[in-house]
Each structure stands twice: as C-alpha cells, then as structure tokens.
Amino acid sequence: MGIPLTPPTITHLSTYTLQYAAQTVILPAPSLGEVQTFQSTRVFRNTRGLTRRSFIDSSWYKLNVFDLVFTNVSEAVKENLVTLAQTALGDVVSVTTHYNESKTMFIVTVDPYIEVHDDDCSFTISLTLQEVI
To answer: Which range of residues forms the domain containing residue 122?
Structure first.
C-alpha cells in the first residue's frame, strides 16, 4: 500500500496588505506575472590578469526582490499607498501576501509607478518590495 498523497492547501486571498506603524493599506491581489528575483550578496574584484573573481559567503544576506503590479486600485487606496511608500521607504514593512503569508519586507520604490486608466477612476500601480533572507 502506498501513502496517499494529499495536495498542499494554498489559501489564496483577494487582497495584499502593507502595514507600517499605524498605517495600513489593503490592495487588490497583484496581477498575474508578478516577478520574484533571488539575489545573493557577492563581492567582485579584478586581478592583475583582469579576470574577475567572485567571493561569496553563505552567512551573508540573501535578497528576494518582488516586482508587483496592482490593477483597478481606487484613488483613495492609491493616495494611502503613496503616503505609506514615502513614509516607510527603506524601513521595515509588515506584509500579508495574497497567499496568506506574513513577511517582513522593505519598500525600495521611491515613488510607485502609477498609470491612470481611461475612466480616471482606477489606477495601475507598480511597486518593488525587498525581503532579506
């Protein structure tokens, strides 16, 4: 007899929450195609033979960078997000993702890219968050 395989339970929320101090912004779930980039910390040096050697230590921090796009955002939520991004830039932000994961991240976008839709009532916002692992 084999062990029955049960698929993992993934809770998919329809919101993405950012919280900094007393400010909370609830965004719709990001659009499909979100980009996650893994970066490790490295040091590059040139030698006399002009070859580049890379130095890496496993104890150095590793980064996860998330490029997210939120669509159909209302004007009130857009204003709150811009205020939170400017207030919390480079500081720790609590994030609850649309997969119901709680993370601690940094906002690395100085000004979120905002695109106005034709109806002038909804916006598309691009935001970059960074997680230190």
So the answer is: 15-132
